[in-house]
User: Which sequence fits this backbone?
């Protein structure tokens, strides 16, 4: 199970690395595009689900809830970690100007959202000041984003694991 999940996680990491590289070379501001976020999330959830399916197949069509979740989690954690390590390398080592441009674009998007919500100018200014102090690509922000999103993907993993567990016929004891 672990080898299967590891392999799928490495493949997922490679796919996400290619997506990140493609986005960086085409237009790094696409990093903030909501549709790209959906594509990445769909890819991660699909890989985790496939890992669970493959583990169940390897186990002769049955799987426990715990093994289903482990399979999902290992694959998604490894693949997503590769993605964020690569983003850290691109935007903090290779091209820090791109990171600054993305941060500025994110601030503009946040400011527009805050204005749309009717927040006071003081609150918006305070928020912009805080955002300007912390790069989205600092190690602490990348680790926080990785952890929080991994928790979100784990929620999908719990649902997937439950489905695979419920659809697995019980092992027969002969």
Assistant:
């Amino acid at each position: 199970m672990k080898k299967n999940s590891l392999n799928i996680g490495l493949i997922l990491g490679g796919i996400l690395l290619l997506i990140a590289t493609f986005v960086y070379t085409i237009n790094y501001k696409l990093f903030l595009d909501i549709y790209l976020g959906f594509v990445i999330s769909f890819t991660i959830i699909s890989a985790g689900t496939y890992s669970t399916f493959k583990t169940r197949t390897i186990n002769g069509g049955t799987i426990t809830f715990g093994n289903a979740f482990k399979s999902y989690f290992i694959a998604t954690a490894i693949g997503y970690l590769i993605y964020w390590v690569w983003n850290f390398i691109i935007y903090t080592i290779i091209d820090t100007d791109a990171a600054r441009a993305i941060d500025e674009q994110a601030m503009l998007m946040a400011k527009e959202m805050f204005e749309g919500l009717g927040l006071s100018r003081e609150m918006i200014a305070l928020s912009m000041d805080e955002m300007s102090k912390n790069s989205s690509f600092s190690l602490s922000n990348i680790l926080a984003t990785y952890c929080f999103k991994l928790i979100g993907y784990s929620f999908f993993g719990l649902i997937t694991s439950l489905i695979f567990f419920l659809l697995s016929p019980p092992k027969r004891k002969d």
